[in-house]
Amino acid sequence: MNVSATLNAFRLIQNPSLCLPHATISTFNHLPIPISLAFASSLDGQKPDIRAVVLDKDDCFASPRENVVYKPYHEKFQALRIAYPGSRLVIVSNSTGSNNDLHGKEADILEAATGVKVLRHNAKKPGCGPQILDYFYNAPDSNVTSPNHIAVVGDRLFTDVIMANLMGSWSIWVKDGVVRNKSFISRWESKLPGYLYRKGFAAPRPP
Q1: pLDDT-based confidence at residue 8 (cuts at 50, 70, 90)
Q2: How confident is the model at residue 180, as a pLDDT?
Q3: Which residue in 156, 162, 160, 149 sits closest to 207, CA to CA?
Q4: What angle do CA 41, 171, 58 make, to 5 degrees?
Q5: Is 163:129 a contact under the CB 8 Å cutoff?
Q6: Helix, strand or coil for residue 131?
């Protein structure tokens, strides 16, 4: 059970905007590089200073429960690594590297397969924002000095997007992902932004 997501669901009742992304793409292959380009249309052509990227795994760049890059996304993944080298790119998953990953064995496999750091974290998304900030602030090559230097890319509104908004960072929602036949919860989740936009809500802009 993801206790963090359950607790943060109550925040949505008070502030539904927390689950709204700053940009939406269909699949990982639609991710613009540099990532700042994803937000230009919502900022009147201006681009935020994105220095580091948090990348979700399952149904974002990999099939669920697999610790390799989904083959059609390999070229895009390598381009992202080049654009955000070293500590500027980190994978944060609620499976691999989480407290469900005994001794970090799955994280080790994923790191070996991708060449990208997998954050080991005790609290699941959306509750591990402080650990992510601590990682970037202490990484000598990230050049991150503010949460608004970070973009979070993921397929779940209630984990990836809420976490980004709670952190004061930017979010990109991968709406369709790898798996087309989504669960009932995922299908319902995908309709939520449209409903909230029609009600006048908008994603909170990072300070």
Answers
A1: low
A2: 65
A3: 149
A4: 130
A5: yes
A6: helix
